Amino acid sequence: MKKIIHLIAAARPNFMKIAPLYHALKAEDWCEVHIIHTGQHYDANMSDSIFADLMLPQPHFNLGIGSGSHAYQTGTVMLEYEKIVLEQERPDFLVVVGDVNPTAACSQVATKLHIPVAHLEAGLRSGDRRMPEEINRLVTDAICDTLWTPSPDADENLKNEGHPDSRVVRVGNIMMDSFELLREKIEAEKAPEKHGLEIGNYGVVTLHRPSNVDEYDSLKELMDQLIKVSEKIPLIFAVHPRTRNSLQKHGLWDSLSSVERLKLVDPVSYVPFMSLVKSAKLIITDSGGIQEETTYLNIPCLTLRENTERPITITEGTNELVTVDNLMENVDRVLNGQWRSGTKPDLWDGKTAGRIVKEIKKWLF
Ligand code: UD1
Q1: Cys bridge to 348: 53, 137, 163, 173, which one at CB 3.0-4.6 A?
Q2: Which domains occur in the chain, in start order?
Q3: pLDDT value, residue 171
């Protein structure tokens, strides 16, 4: 009998984490790998087109939970995933990834049903408990059976929280596997040219954290700064639905769309997005994953946050934390060639999925 493995995919940043693992497990003859999409992200450009880029099949189960409060998302995923496990298919092993609400929800369901659960991207800590993701990280790591980390700082965090060494395995950064899997397509995509941008002479913007985009004051201040930045270097801004809703609600959308050198586009799928990032002069973001991808590609990353759960992107990579007040001077530093070059952290090598397959086999046989 083949072993059944479930991979939980909920929101956009999860998809690039499960894809390499899905493909690696699919090639094994001892297991069947099934994707559970919780439906937290559901727009075509937040989900289907990214699945297609990553060559993922239709999810085997879709919980269809959609948008809602944290409690709604967490509770509904727990109820719906539990039904699948009890009534339709009990997996032999579950992998949850990242730090979104369903990561914490599904790990609770499975551990209580005595199914072994692994957390991929374990041990990251921002130290900022106001972020829902930090709570999800703490909850998930506290209960999972095995913790797969991307970097030594994550190992250290888990050790400090009292996890035994035997529970922690440094597997590397799975996102780099996705990039390498699709490198040829990304290089052939030529997204900058399609948007009329000159290679190496534009910036990419993404923003979606509630602390940056939900309230009028911070959003307006940020948009004013971006307009100023665009006078120095053209920007392309892939607008997350949360951000678009907020810009529209606060009456900022129309004036922003009329800024010529600040191009607003819908969320971009994985291949064209990485094509944009790869040839950019700089990135302005509050995303987690982009801090890592820019470190891998040696592109200056200006992160509009007070903290990061990915400090290795600062100590070894090309990332720096910036504020709305010093954004402009940091952009100038990049344009004047004063941004430092980074190095690729250990085990960010495109081979993480292979290491994980070996780990899963150790658990199951
Ligand atoms: C979620 C994650 C965050 C991650 C981000 C990536 C949690 C706690 N947060 O935040 O860690 O960085 O995904 O995008 O899990 N919406 C749409 N279409 C969609 C999805 C969302 O219109 O396909 C809109 C809805 O109005 C929704 C809002 O965006 O209410 C926010 O979506 P949600 O999934 O709740 O949180 P994100 O901000 O995307």
Answers
A1: 173
A2: 3-173+348-364 (3.40.50.2000), 184-335 (3.40.50.2000)
A3: 98
- 222 to each of 100, 127, 213, 228, how far by Cα in Å? 25, 24, 9, 10
Q: What dihedral angle (degrees, nearest 10) is formed by the CA atoms of 192, 313, 16, 39? A: -100
Give me the residue label for tokens 């297609």.
Answer: 52
Give residue-wise pLDDT tens across range 295-345. Answer: 999 999 999 999 999 999 999 999 999 999 999 999 999 999 999 999 999
- pTM score of the predicted model: 0.97
List residues bridging with 319 in a β-sheet: 301
| Whole-number Å distance between alpha carbons of 37 and 10 | 5
Ligand 1 pocket residue status of 42, Cβ below 6 Å: yes
208 among known catalytic residues: yes
DSSP for 273-316, written as a single string = HHHHHHT-SEEEE--SHHHHHHHHHT--EEE-SS--S-THHHHT
DSSP 222: H
Q: Is the CB of 285 under 6 A from ligand 1?
A: no
Ligand 1 in reach of 211 Cβ (< 6 A)? no
**Which pLDDT tens digit goes with each residue over 22-71?**
999 999 999 999 999 999 999 999 999 999 999 999 999 999 999 999 99
Task: Please give the structure tokens belonging to residue 167.
Answer: 């529970």
- Cβ atoms 120, 356 nearer than 8 A: yes
Which of the following is catalytic: 6, 34, 208, 240? 208
Best residue among 16, 40, 106, 138 to mutate for probing ligand 1's pocket (most ligand atoms within 8 Å of CB) is 40
* Alpha helix ranges (H) inside the chain: 12-26, 48-53, 70-83, 101-112, 132-143, 152-160, 174-181, 183-189, 191-194, 210-213, 216-232, 241-249, 253-257, 270-278, 289-297, 312-315, 327-335, 352-364
DSSP structure class, residue 86: I
Is residue 208 within 6 Å of ligand 1 at its C-beta?
Answer: yes
Mutate to test the pocket of ligand 1, among 15, 100, 246 (most ligand atoms within 8 A of CB): 100
